[in-house]
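[Automated response] Your request has been received and processed.

Submitted sequence:
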Amino acid sequence: MNRRLRRAGAVMGLLTAFISVNNTSLFTTRPPGAPTLLAHRGIAQRFDPTGVGNDTCTASRMLPPTHGYLENTIASMRAGFAAGADIIEADIHPTTDGQFAVFHDWTVDCRTEGKGVTRDHSMAQLKALDIGYGYTADGGKTFPFRGKGIGLMPSLDDVLAAFPDKQLLINIKSNDPEEGKKLSVVLAALPADRRQMLMVYGGDRPIAALRAALPDMRTMSRSSLKACLLRYIGIGWTGIVPDTCRETLVLVPINIAPWLWGWPDRFLDRMEGAGSRVFALGPYSGGDFSTGLDTPELLSRLPVNYSGGIWTNEIETIASTLDAGSGNP
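Generated structure:
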């Protein structure tokens, strides 16, 4: 019995040593580099997030504005890149005339003077709306952007033309597979090297349709992300990268990151070797995944010399904090 116990102990010791050596970042040869910054919706007006749900009109909860940009516009994206973003995220909806509008909300009622579901309008109708109409920071007493947002809702074609050499993350706002098919037609018309600068995420069904049509695109849905993270936590100690983690976006909430084998450098190397991009997020608490690393305090929770991606709603704050620290959290 003692011999069996000693043998079992030796095996466990060897296994523990293997797991430790195979997943430490001490022996990686990953070169140092500044994090890749992803600006969610470009530069946007901030709002009080307390109690916000999927149907909350965030424009009516705007905090006192500190800049003049409205999210998902050419100007806000240009300002985001100028502030230090490497990638801009943009939300899209199909239009009745076969285009894609760049706009966050499912309906136009919150931010504009219009009514109805966004996708039930033509692009011309959407461009005629004032996307600054509904913003207020004082409960409706004043509307500082009213009259200033007419014609500012761009089409996806407008965005691609305005930023031909920039990286973009496109967000499909529905779970309609037809939307994935329509988007695949638009993206298929682009040169292959341009598609490599684009990524797409959204509902499970449109992402599946898009990936079937364009398997070379980096895509992600909620279920694909969950499958990637759970399977990697299960088998990543071996160094094996699950198929669900290949050619995708891997969004990593900062409170889940320590559970990932080899975090940070070994994990980043494995994901990049599988053709995937990693972006650190704010803490996950059962809600959606749009919480960014938006404060210096959250940024400080990243490992020293972290060189993966960072998802943020506050590109100016995060970029300036990184600049002050010579590019490192």
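Summary generated for your ticket: Residues 7 and 13 are 10 Å apart (CA to CA). The chain has a mean pLDDT of 91.
If you did not submit this request, please reply to this message.
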